[in-house]
Amino acid sequence: MNFSLMRLFVWLPTALLCLCTAVGAQTAPPTPKPFEDSIAQRSLACTHCHGAQGRAAPDGYYPRLAGKPAGYLYNQLLHFRDGRRHYGLMTQLLEPLSDGYLLEIAQYFAELDLPYPAAPPAAGTRELVERGRVLVMQGDASRQLPACVQCHGTRMTGVLPNVPGLLGLPRDYLNAQLGAWRTGKRRAHAPDCMAQLALRMSPDDIQAVSVWLASQPVPRDSKPAERLAPVAGLPVCGMAAITASATSATSATSVKTGVVR
Ligand code: HEC
Ligand code: HEC
Asked: Is 10 exposed, middle or buried (0-12, 13-18, 19+ CB in 10 A)?
């Protein structure tokens, strides 16, 4: 990794550290630590928002990164960098980074295996919650809505390499993402299955699936499924191929910085 990229990742945590030490200066003297050049150290710029080790922040908005499929995380980093998803502060961080480096970050967070907090109780009427369960588990053939589990896995923990799990996500985050697909603010690689689906869902459907999903416990083994049984007629969804150039850039980066995963 070149020096300017390193500075980028060092900058945010250092700025925060300065702030905290200035505030705590009267009580405890700061203990300077030598800078350790590892991807865990450099990803502190990310975990400041995404929670320690990418576990999600307690406020329910900053999503979890830990343990999500690497291909999915990689696609999202490309989406933010290239303008298919929008969050200015993150885009600024990602803009200067190469595909290879984004893949390396994605693989780092995907490999973390951390427990999830307990799910909150369902925040909706019994009818709404039941409607959510039926849509997720069975879909609605009359509106050409496939069951969510057909792509996201029967255990809803996602499917390698690029389909994320649906559990352990806060209701507000789910609502916001499905709403963003409806309005075209969030996009994925073509064919963008989620955009097609979200357009067939009413605001009440979105509310129902978000309420039900957010209240479901994450199973103890929260790892994504290896593969799905193919279902006839189910669309094939777009994803970025993890290209040879991205992979070779990764190994080049790893060799240069001596990153140990
Ligand atoms: C200033 C806060 C902030 C920082 C810093 C930040 N993020 Fe984010 N990130 C967010 C928010 C907010 C979202 C959700 C945006 C949305 O609504 O789509 C997000 C979404 C994501 C997603 C998509 C998650 C998913 O499940 O779809 C990934 C991946 C991600 N961030 C990775 C990173 C990485 C890697 C870094 C460090 C280079 C980083 N973020 C730094 C706030 C931040
Ligand atoms: C045909 C396959 C397919 C079906 C059916 C499907 N999804 Fe998805 N879903 C995907 C793919 C692929 C992605 C990743 C898109 C990307 O790369 O951004 C995704 C992503 C998502 C995300 C983003 C997760 C995050 O962490 O940001 C949510 C939320 C979601 N789907 C909800 C649903 C719900 C709810 C249903 C059922 C109503 C559903 N999906 C049905 C394929 C599918």
From this structure: middle
Global pTM value: 0.84
CA 45, CA 242: separation in Å to the nearest integer?
Answer: 24
Distance 38 CA to ligand 2 centre (A): 32
Q: Are 16-116+244-257 and 126-214 the same fold in CATH?
A: yes
CATH class of 16-116+244-257: mainly alpha
d(CA 156, CA 165): 5
pLDDT in tens for each of the 261 residues of the chain? Answer: 444 444 444 444 444 343 333 333 445 555 655 666 677 777 888 988 888 878 776 666 788 999 999 999 999 999 999 999 999 999 999 999 999 999 999 999 999 998 888 899 998 999 999 999 999 999 999 999 999 999 999 999 999 989 999 999 989 999 999 999 999 999 999 999 999 999 999 999 999 999 999 999 999 899 999 987 777 777 788 887 665 455 544 433 322 222 222
Q: Is the CB of 194 within 6 Å of ligand 1? A: no
Question: For residue 92, which ligand has an atom nearest its CA?
Answer: 1
CATH 1.10.760.10 fits 126-214, yes or no: yes
* CA 90 / ligand 1 centre spacing (Å): 6
Q: b/e map of 88-106 (b: 16 or more CB within 10 Å)?
A: eebeebbeebbbbbbbbbb
Taking the domains of the chain in order of start, what are their residue ranges?
16-116+244-257, 126-214
63 lines ligand 2 (CB under 6 A): yes
Q: Cβ–Cβ contacts within 10 Å for residue 73, how many?
A: 24
Task: For residue 152, report the distance from its CA to the centre of ligand 1, in Å.
Answer: 21
